Amino acid sequence: MGQLEITPLDAADPAAMAAWHAAYHAAHVAGRAYSTPWMLEEMRADLTADRPGSRSLGFSGHVDGTLVTTGLLGLPLMDNLHAADVEVHTHPAHRGRGHGSRMLEHLEGVAREHGRRTLRSEAATPYAGAADGSGHPHADFLLHRGFTFALGNVMRVLDLPADERMLQRLADEAAPRHAGYRIRQFAGPVPEDIVEPFGALVGAVQTEAPTGELDVEPEVFDAARIRADEEVFAASGRTKYTTVAIAPDGTVVAFSEVAVPAHDPGRVYQWGTLVLREHRGRRLGQATKAHNLLWLQRERADLALLVTYNAEVNRHMIAVNEAMGFRPVERLGEYQRTLG
Ligand SMILES: CC(C)(COP(=O)(O)OP(=O)(O)OC[C@H]1O[C@@H](n2cnc3c(N)ncnc32)[C@H](O)[C@@H]1OP(=O)(O)O)[C@@H](O)C(=O)NCCC(=O)NCCS
Fold it and tell me: Can you give the residue ranges of the N-acetyltransferase domain (predicted)?
């Protein structure tokens, strides 16, 4: 058997991109009932994007001309400049030969070249397993290579359409708690008149949701970043459906949004839900989530499964999700490693 050769992926080359994605996808779905791989068009849009907020780099590992392992490096560019996100996927037929380890070392080297001192990564493990994922090869791969467990998330799914009366009841029961607040909804790009306050909400999600031991800063979402990201969503075939709550004084204080992928038919992914601190305790999280889903499933009868991830310690959000009928299916651990 020849040596592993690692080269940068040219995501604009259709054949190279398709081969990379095929190996990544096979590795991502192997042994998992509810995996959430990115589709080819989504990955291509991400890897070819020229946007202010972040940059993604792909790497291919070949042995004797066969693509056996893939690497992905994410570099935040407007915040979290100390960090890099790394992902390694080895095709199931080529595991246990050191390819993944070599790819991880390679990504570490590139992260160092970009001046990053923290590597962040994720591993999907069975729900019935340990909270930190240990004992499962996906997590052990990281834990045996200097990463420490930083935050445990649980992936939950909800079959659609959800019971409309239940959703309406959740919205109605929350309503008296935020009398005077208004609900506003939009599909696709954020309306121009609320782009700034909306960016402040989205930027706070990373640090306002539980962070465990993660070494993270709030994200910066100015109008330029939001608009550039919207172009990448469009190129990816993703449409966002968003519900915001507006306080009596006109400020945007809460949001909940989902993304519907054109290239992953039937699926919909919950993205952020956040209520500004000063406006908590008024059931605005429950209200925006229930209103968003009621609206979504009237608009999109083609959807079969809503997927969400929550930190295991996020009791409030999980209670809302459980009331909606979500069921836990898998764990997603977040791990990090400080580069010496
Ligand atoms: C995790 C993953 C990337 C590992 O890929 P891999 O190519 O099998 O990785 P390696 O071969 O380098 O290491 C895997 C195991 O094989 C063992 N191994 C490494 N070289 C070996 C060799 N030459 N002979 C036999 N075994 C070997 C290692 O000890 C390692 O075990 P450990 O993690 O308990 O220490 C792969 O399982 C995968 O794609 N999983 C899905 C995606 C994922 O979870 N990635 C991890 C987070 S980024």
Answer: 4-163, 200-340
> Which pLDDT score is estimated for 211?
87
What CATH number does residue 73 fall under?
3.40.630.30
- Total domain count, the chain: 2
- Ligand 1 centroid, distance to 206 Cα (angstroms): 29
Give the Cα separation of 205 and 274 in Å (integer). 6
Tell me which residues of the chain have a pLDDT lower than 70: none
97 contact partners, CB below 8 Å, separation of at least 6: 1, 68
**Residue 144 near ligand 1, beta carbon < 6 Å:** yes
User: Is residue 134, in this structure, part of any structural domain at all?
Assistant: no
pLDDT at 205: 86
Element spanning 173, H or E: helix 164-174
Ligand 1, pocket-test mutation among 28, 90, 106, most atoms within 8 A of CB: 90
Within-domain flag for 124: no
Smallest CA separation from ligand 1 atom 42, residue: 89
Asked whether residue 10 falls in the same domain as residue 70, the answer is yes
pLDDT at 188: 97
